[in-house]
Amino acid sequence: MGTGAGTGAGNGAGADGRGGGPGRLAGVDAVRGIAVLGMFAVHVGPSPQPEGAGYLLVAADGRAPALFTLLAGFSLVLAQRATDPARRPEGWASRWRPLLIRCAVLAVLGLYLASLWPGILVILAFFAVYFLAAEPFTRLSTPVLTAVAGASVVVGPLLSFLLGPLFGYGSSGRGLVPEAADLTSWPGLGAAVCELLLTGAYPLATYFPYVLAGMALARLCDVRERVTARRMAVWGTAAAVAGYGTAWLATHVFGTRQRLLEAIAVHHPEAMAAADPVREVLSGQFGAVPSTSWDWLLLADPYSQTPLETLGNAGVGCALIGLCALAARHAVGARLLRPLTMLGAMALSAYVAHALVLAGPAHGAASWSAWVAFSGAALALTWVWQRIWADSPLRRGPVEHALRLATRVGGRA
């Protein structure tokens, strides 16, 4: 999940769509809050079933991490835009030292949480890699960045498909996250690097396109403008329909599913006993594309990380940003979004707290009541926190504030 940009949500959101703190867009924070609730649904909710209330879990499955990653790229550009050009650091050390410190803190935190075995695939170490990889792209012009983002949607999954077998991951063994113990040996370190870049649960190859897409969207779209926000909602919906719809046609009309079942029978025979062999295989791949058939690249199932799923997920994120930005322009909409805005402003703290709880008293939780409890507690505690620390930099959230302090100290060293 993302760490955000700018200041906290402060005391609420005005009709202009900005949060109470300067430099934040309430609509963007609200979408991040939605992503947090979606993450809770995936981590502590029951198994997603396409019936009744289960459709909420189906909607969150696979899209929550994609939405966080898209928002990370979006927020990078917002932060860059909010910085006075005259105060932007010049020189390699001034520009890279704060970034390296920020990424190091995220990586250490991610490795620590993963080592606690909370029962979830901790994404923070992957985010450290995303931020490092994104820095050079912030220097590109908007047209070039947009073209690169569009190409990455295809190139990233294709690299995953082609390179997986070269590292011995053609049909299995993917979907892991690095842990602190991996750093104690050279083989472990090599495996951790491979997981971060190609074979892990959220590898750079298939998740970095979301970062680039978010950066391009923030460059192209000023969500403070009503017309722009409306266009984001429309075009995002169109992109989602194009991605998911094309995959549906490929699967149900043009025989992709049948060809995949034939490939599964050869390369994943153990999955044939499952109710849905295709989903069974994907559940063990997560962020990597299986390399046993080209037809895998035509899916858009959760965690398939194909071009079509990436397009569909990015479209959902774009549409949500546009819709929430439109709602935040009005007093009633801003008040309704305020709990989500506050939660989204403290998303990193919420993520760390929920991982710690899952590593302890709530380990293995998987029910509707667990999801309601986690969601209610997160919404209430972030509201209370920001009320108590409304006039303090701590309103950003404890983990966000600590990360900002570490970055500032490092930048001045």
From TrEMBL:
Residues 24-243 form the Heparan-alpha-glucosaminide N-acetyltransferase catalytic domain. It comes from the Bacteria. The chain crosses the membrane at residues 99-132, 144-168, 233-251, 311-328, 340-359, 365-385. The keyword Transmembrane applies. This is DUF418 domain-containing protein. It comes from Streptomyces erythrochromogenes. The keyword Nucleotide-binding does not apply. Residues 306-408 form the DUF418 domain. Keywords: Membrane, Transmembrane, Transmembrane helix. InterPro entries: Bact_Transport_Assoc, DUF418, HGSNAT_cat.
